[in-house]
Design goal:
heterotrimer; A mainly alpha (226); B mainly alpha (245); C alpha/beta (242); A: 226 residues; mainly alpha; MetI-like fold; 82% helix; B: MetI-like fold; 0% strand; flat
Chain lengths: 226, 245, 242
Amino acid sequence: MYEFDWSSIPNALPFLWDGMMISLQITATAVIIGIVWGTLLALMRLSPIKPLSWFAAGYVNLFRAVPLVMVLLWFFLIVPHLLESLFGFPRGSDMRLGSAMAGFALFEAAYYSEIMRAGIQSVPKGQMSAASALGMTYAQGMRLVVLPQAFRNMVPLLLTQGIILFQDTSLVYVSALADFFGAAYKVGDRDGRLVELLLFAGAVYFVICFTASRIVRHYQQKLKTA
Amino acid sequence: MGYNWNWGVFLQPTASGGDTYLGWMIHGFKTTIALSLSAWLIALALGAVVGVLRTVPNKVLSGIATAYVEVFRNIPLLVQLFLWYFVMPELLPEKLGSAFKQSNPFVQQFLSSMVCLALFTSARVAEQVRSGINSLPPGQKNAGLAMGFTLSQTYRHVLLPMAVRLIVPPLTSEFLNIFKNSAVCSTIGLLELAAQGRQLVDYTAQPYESFIAVTLAYLLINVVVMFGMRWLEARVRVPGYIGGK
Amino acid sequence: MITMNNVSKHYGSFQVLTECSTQVQKGEVIVVCGPSGSGKSTLIKVVNGLEPFQSGEIIVNGLSVGDPKTNLSKLRSMVGMVFQNFELFPHMSIIDNLCIAQTKVLHRTQEVARDKGLKLLERVGLSAQAAKFPGQLSGGQQQRVAIARALAMDPICMLFDEPTSALDPEMVNEVLDVMTELAREGMTMMCVTHEMGFAKRVASRVIFMDQGRIVEDDSKEAFFANPRSERAQQFLAKILHH
């Protein structure tokens, strides 16, 4: 029978905490940039200007067809190459955190864009007509009338996507970046206590994501009854 | 930008000999397909059972099903994979664990990956099954019962046939996800499509060609699955029913 | 045929039915009416055990509905029920809707079930629609199919839960005609409905409910000529003067 030994965890807590901060940083940047860029993509997709709509559709479908791991590998292995050769960045400079943030943000934007598109379409068409009847331009109607309602309807989905994104940040493991999971793996590997560290990491993720999804559901119920 | 494009690289024999780089790619492609399909079948079966259990009146059964779904939904896939691959063999009974550890590494990686993807996906399938059943008008269940069906007959003949039709579109995206998620299994050394792409970069120093090829292969899987599911959707469409259009 | 003794039901602290007692003899047509929320739908749903109740007793054809030993599925297969929203099974053709319970519950052969189904479809005037799906029929047609589906089980009595209230006005009569014919043939029926014309034509008795209680339970002549309770008088005044 396996004998558990949890003693390497207490000493590793500061290191794990730093890792968690990296996970959260990546999550936060990707959520914010992802929502902004995703909303723009959704607007392009729904716009009557064909090239814009084609571009957005192509972008979204491409990113949604490719595994996140592949996108991250593109960003870790190839984008730095590109930057070096295009802008003369010094060779070997550590761009892993930046690459991770950019990769996640651009990837998640495709998913956020689909959520926002559904949100915009969930607002009755009459709202835009009413805005136009009051003399608003298309852009004003979108910004002042449609988008606020779309956001409100979609907040639970946007947050749920944020929770999924937080879980997905563990994939920066492929770049050996020490996010929370990477840190846990490193400690476990160093001390020969992989079993304990992996179980610990799983439990921490579970507690955070479970709590967060409960809060989202609570909010969702409040929204429904309101 | 001084990059030497060389698409011929795929036809060159590999550094270790015996095969071409294209052969590696095809091998990885096959592994991705085999892994995803086998995990998908398990996920469908498990997910259907768990999803139905979440809707039954029995509190204990629905509680167990809910706990199952929450556990597999709230732990990152990568962590689950490492738990199956590194932790599970240690916690198994001695004999079973060491038998696993002494088996062919490919078998170890494939089995862990399959179980991991299957259970991870089954929780998502269960959620779709549950919401499919719950989205049916409540009178349907009563109508089945009122005709003398038992609860299980009501599920079998009335609720599930409709629920299954309703969830074909959301299941399509779960089916696509399992192919994409299988790329995570490259982290434990399973030489599937993404891992072969990475290996190609190391061996050939032609990163763009290999990554573009791998990306195109995933796009191909997507297109095939999408057309397949659209065909299925049309096959099971119920005439005159709004949800079936 | 149906006996209810002091049946009470509550959800939490909300009392849905309070000590309801009545009897339905073979061949009687009972119309149950009352304001919305008065418990009339619940009253007929407890008869075939679709809604559980906490106290009292219901005997249908000698079987106690509340007794855990009673095989509820068997009891329900003998009691036909028609719902407000039809509840045909959308994924099956009309004829399959009529056959499924015959074959799976009564274990009739496919041929016997089909013959029976086609005969009943003819009776409700819908033979031509046998191969269609519910979504392709109008509401009135769907409800007639639902009645035929219930009749296919050779029920000893029929329960109707507001069978015409989800229908467009021009379709109400085609359904009422089928129900009237059924009543004339001697089917035992309990109907929750606001169609007072139907009640006047075919009801043997009218039950009036208010706030979960059976307030009136009288012959239709007595009920319409001279309702005893004030609530029933108000209800009739509202419903008849439109």
